[in-house]
Amino acid sequence: MLREHADEAKVLAGGQSLVPMMSLRLASFGHLVDLNRVTGLDEITRSNGHVRVGALVRQSVAEHDPTVGTDVPMLARALPHIGHFQIRNRGTVGGSIAHADPASELPAVVCALDAILEASSADGSRDIAAADFFESTWQTALADDEILTAVRFPVWSGRSGFAVEEVTRRHGDFAICGAVCGVQRSGDSVTRAAIALFGVGATPIRARAAEAALVAAGAGADLAAIGQEAAAGLEPGDDLHASGAYRRTVGAVVVRRALSRALEEAGS
Amino acid sequence: MIDSIDSIDGSSAIDAVRVGFSVNGRARHVTCEPRKLLSDVLRDDLGLTGTHVGCEHGACGACTILLDGAAVRSCLLFAAQIEGCTITTVEGIADPDGGLSTVQQAMQDNHGLQCGFCTPGIVVSLTAYLRDHAEPSDEQIRDALSGNLCRCTGYHGIVNAARQAAGRPARPTHEGDDQS
Hints:
The structure holds 2 protein chains of 2 kinds.
Chain A: H1 2-5, E1 9-12, H2 18-23, E2 31-34, E3 44-47, E4 50-54, H3 59-63, H4 66-71, H5 73-78, H6 85-88, H7 93-99, H8 105-112, E5 116-121, E6 124-129, H9 130-133, E7 134-136, E8 139-140, E9 147-154, E10 159-167, E11 177-186, E12 189-198, E13 205-206, H10 208-217, H11 223-232, H12 244-267
Parallel strand pairs in A: 1-2
Antiparallel strand pairs in A: 3-4, 4-9, 5-6, 5-9, 7-8, 10-11, 11-12, 12-13
Helix pairs in contact in A: 10-11, 11-12
Chain B: E1 2-6, E2 13-23, E3 26-32, H1 38-45, E4 64-67, E5 70-73, E6 86-88, H2 102-109, H3 119-132, H4 138-145, H5 156-165
Parallel strand pairs in B: 2-6
Antiparallel strand pairs in B: 1-2, 2-3, 4-5, 4-6
Helix pairs in contact in B: 2-5
C-alpha cells in the first residue's frame, strides 16, 4: 500500500503526534496505514550488546521495562519527559523516532547512543545508522515505502552515567531545549562521552567537539566550558516559545547540568 | 465488513467500516467512516456523552477513556482501530449499583469540580492511575494530573480528592505538604 500510494499514504502507529497534526489540519493524507495490528513489532530483547526495541513498543511499556532501565538508562530516563502518562500509554518508541520532531527526546537518544534503525519495505530490510537517519524537521531517511520496525540501542558497559535535562514551560510540553548525555569513567578519566541536544535545530544535534573536549579534560573538566562548546555551533531559530539566542544559552546550561549528573553517577 | 455510505456533501461514496468492541461491559457494533474518531463514535453513535470533547487534539484530556485498561485519549484514536478492544468510559466507572466510585465520591467531597467539563477525563485518569500506584506522593499526583486541563478549580480540590481516593487525609496535614 505504501508503495502504491507513495506520499499520499502515511504510517499510523500510536497516533499521538500524527492525529493531532491531522486534527489541526497541519497534515492530511489520502490513506493511513495502521500498524497496530502487525504482530512481532512490540518486543524488547537483549542480544549482542544491544537492546532491540520493536517499533510498536508503547512508550509506557519501555519506560517501565527492567531491561531498558538497566541496560539503556538514557532511554528509560528520556521517556517520562514525553507528554503525559495517557500519551505514553498509546505513543510508541518507533513512532516518536520516525516522526522526527526536532523538539522530541527519543531522536536525541538515538543520536547520542549511535543506535541502529531497522527499516523494512516489500523489498527487504536494511539498517540505517543514527547519523544518517534524521534529515530535517519530520524528515528521515525512510523511503516512502519503508517502515521503521525496530531500534537497536547499544548497551554501555563499565562505570557509566546518563542524564536527560530539558527546559519546558510546563511538564509534558514540547521542549524549548534539552540535552541527553552519557559518560563512561575510569577513575578520574572520561573514556567515553556522548552529548546530543534537541529543540535547537531541524534535527537532534550531536556535540562531538564538546564530547572530545570532555574526554581530553577528564572528570574534573570545567563543565560550563564544555556546555558552551556544545552550544557554540548551534543556530536555533526564533519562535513563539523562545528566541534562538535564549535557546543557545539554555543549551549550554542543560549540557552542563546533564554532564554533572552523569559524571556523578558514573563516579559513584 | 465494508459498506458504502454517502459522504456529507453527497458527492462521492466513502467506504464505511463495521467495528465491534466492548463498552462498559456491553458488546457494541458501529458502522462508521474510517476517519471517525472514537470520541465522536462514543458520543454520537452510542450516546455515551459522558466522554467530553474539548481540544480534539490530545492536549486537554477531557476525552480520556480506558482502552484495554490503559488511560488514553479517545480523540486520538479512530474507531476503526479498536476492533475487539475493551473500552471503559466514565459511565462505566461508577459502582455496579449506580453509586459513586471511590474517585467520584472523593471528587464530590473535596469540591474537585466546578463546571464539570474536565471531570470525566480526570475521573477516568485518576481511576487508572490509582489502580497502578497505591500510595502516590503529592508530587506524583500532580504529575499524574498534568495531562488533564481544568480551568475552574485551580486543581487543589482535585489533588485533595486524589489524596482521599488513595486512602490518605484529603487535606494537607502539615505545612510541608505540597500546596504549590
